[in-house]
Amino acid sequence: MAQCPVCGNTVDEEAARATTGFTAHGASEMDPAKGTRQFHDGTWYYFDSLECRSKFLANPGNYVG
Ligand SMILES: [Zn+2]
Question: Ligand 1 mean position to 4 CA, how many Å?
Fold first, then answer.
């Protein structure tokens, strides 16, 4: 299990990975209810929600390092 770097909840990496895909137009496709992930500074980070990912992207330095 991965841990959400924003709120500390556990995240099912398999579910987050499985729901991340790409459409024919290159847009990412995912189920916001099953978590998500973001590649940052050489590492995949897993989040339990889009809200947490948005917070992370707004200020990654708060949650990394
Ligand atoms: Zn979270």
Answer: 5
pTM score: 0.71
Whole-number Å distance, alpha carbon 52 to ligand 1 midpoint, is: 5
What are the sequence ranges of the domains in the chain?
2-60
| Structure-token pair, residue 44 | 């995949």
pLDDT tens, position by position, 23-37: 555 555 555 556 788
CATH (residue range 2-60):
2.30.170
Whole-number Å distance, alpha carbon 59 to ligand 1 midpoint, is 14
